Chromate transporter (Defluviitoga tunisiensis), 171 residues
Amino acid sequence: MLTLLKLFGTFFEIGLFGFGGGYVIIPLIQEHLVKNNWMSIEEFLNLIAIAEVTPGSISINSATYVGYKVYGFIGSIVATLGVVTPSLLIGLSVAAFFKNGTGDTQQNILKFLSPAVIGLILGSGFTIGFTNITTLINLLTFIIVLLLLIFTDVNPMVIIIVTALIGIVFG
C-alpha cells in the first residue's frame, strides 16, 4: 500500500509541476525515478524513447509504464491517475479564473511562464544529449539533423526513418 501511495504522490508531483508538458516534464520524471531507484538512467532513456513513439503524452505514457514496472497493473492505473489529477484540478481552476480574470493578467502569467518552459526543454535536451551522444557517428548524426531542422524544410518523419536506418547500419 505504501508503494502505491508513493507512486501516486510522485506522479502527482510530476503532473503538478510539469507545466508545459512533453519535454519539460522529462527532467522531473528522471529525477524522481532515479531518486526512488525505480529505474537506472539507461532504463529511463529507453522509457523516454518508448514514450515518444507511442500515442499519447510523455507524462501519461511514462506514468503507465513506471507504474506497471513498480507495482503491476494496479500500479499503472495509480501512477496514471497521479499524473493526470493535477492537470484536471488546475484546468478547472484556471478555467474559472480566466472566465472572470482580465486579459492583462492572463498575458502576464503566460509571458513569465514561457521562458521557464523553454529553459526546461533545453535542460532535458542537454541531459538526454550528453547521455546518448557517446560516439563520433552519434555526434555527426546530431549535428546533421540539427542543421537540417534549422535550415531546411525536411519532414521530421524522413529524418526519423533515415536515422533509424543509420542506427541499424552503424549500431
About this structure: The two ends are 42 Å apart (CA to CA). The mean pLDDT is 84.
